[in-house]
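Record format v2
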Amino acid sequence: MIEYYGKAVYESIAIGPVHLMERHAKHITDEKSGDISAETAKFNSARESAKADLQQLYERTLARAGVSQAEIFSIHMMMVDDLDFEDLVMAKINEGYNAAYAVQSAAEELAAMFAAMDDEYMQGRANDVKDISGRITDHICGSARTIRLEDSAIVVADDVNPSEIVGFEKSKLLGLVTSKGSVSSHMAIIARSMSLPCVVATGVKMDKSYEGKTGIIDGFSGKIIIDPTPAQLQEYTARLNKLIEEEAFRRSLIGRPNTTADGRTMEIYCNIGKSKDVAAALENDAHGIGLMRSEFLYLDSSDYPAEDYQFNEYRQTLEAMGGRTVIIRTMDIGADKKVSYFNLPEEENPAMGLRSLRICLERPEIMKTQLRALYRASVYGKLKIMVPMIISVDEVKWVKKMAFDVRNELKAEGVPFDDKVEIGIMIETPAAAVISDDLADIADFFSIGSNDLTQYTLAIDRQNSRLENMFDAKHKAVLRLIKTVVENAHKKGKWVGLCGELGKNTELTGFFAAIGLDEVSVSAPYVLKVREKLMQVNTAEVDISKYI
Ligand code: PEP
Ligand code: MG
């Protein structure tokens, strides 16, 4: 039996076989192997694996976004089998080079040839060549991560990024343990939204001997047990059964209003990443979507998601919510949510760097595509648009002007849209909180992003696991800012919610209701937990001064 600890991300328990997920760094050299037939076999087998990946991507994209978006993957599949490419690779292998180097250098030659052509379409093929060769060399070097699980398992990894965690087959992923990571990262936020027993930052290197052994994740204390004793197994099985019973009680609150014992309503909405997450929101009786993190569409794509693809996602979300409010946030790429095709610069402080709206200010076409997709979808439900990382009134004016232009453009094209869609902002920087009185004049609503508001107010990187004990979202400075924001919004008759992780903290449900917050938005597993607490609150008895 082995026990170790990390930081608990989601309060639940998992019991099951351990599966190690390893990532090997890709290190390609021009070393000669000399074994032509072995290198040829490696090349051929990696080609087959790359084609299988592409087939899967093709099918997923076809189902979600239609044939025109999926087409790129069928082109890539054809390129993997392209005879010119094969000839170039085989020439290098026949010269004695190792397969990875042969693929990489052949791709470079081919890409340079495409890039030098006059035709813009052919120039574009240079990137495709690099993309497919990267996929093939990933397989040759074993750096591709398998996220297909054969059987249900507790996955143990060094680190998992946001796009990888969504790639797992939900029904087979019992729990997740990582050596690195932090409880405030986006990976952790997704784990919570999946109700996934999860512990991060164990600092323990993966040990191959754990593979296949029984593991236990205690998502309350952060304890990991490998190869438990019979007594431990019995104890945790009993605790797991109790959790299942408590969950059954909470489900009896479905259909009840989000009202305190003294009759004050504070809506409880749900945070989601993509349209498929609406099912969990509805299962947990969320009265709306308080935050759709639209950047997940970008994280899940190998190129900028096209207007039609986005439109379909937003439309599906709005339709599935059947007339309930859906707040969709414009993309918040940057910091820990990176995508290679954005070609963002390496930065000293990415959380304080070119992220989110700041990228759009430099590349307005990104915002424009997104706004067009959002307005087109607006006729299918009750949409509100929300903009993250605001620090000034001018930024809000910039977005509103662009929204105005987009509406005019759609009108001229005869495309229907709802011209009453509200445009709100996130209050997640101290600057926005401090000038929230001015911002309330121009924004239609506020939603407080307590994760970033804590990070920037306390100057504690939300990704830094060593500072986690100091990442205190209940710090008086943060709670005072929240109260000020609520007051400033209400003075101007504006609605104000909170969509950061703090909303799920039931120790604060009374405080939030007492200061008059209109809504909290939490991930699906917390909707009924917060409702259970809210129903017990009597706001007249809440001593606000105790919190601030
Ligand atoms: C926040 O900062 O609180 C928030 C909701 O946005 P994100 O966690 O996606 O940065
Ligand atoms: Mg944020």
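The radius of gyration is 25 Å.
The chain has 20 helices and 16 strands.
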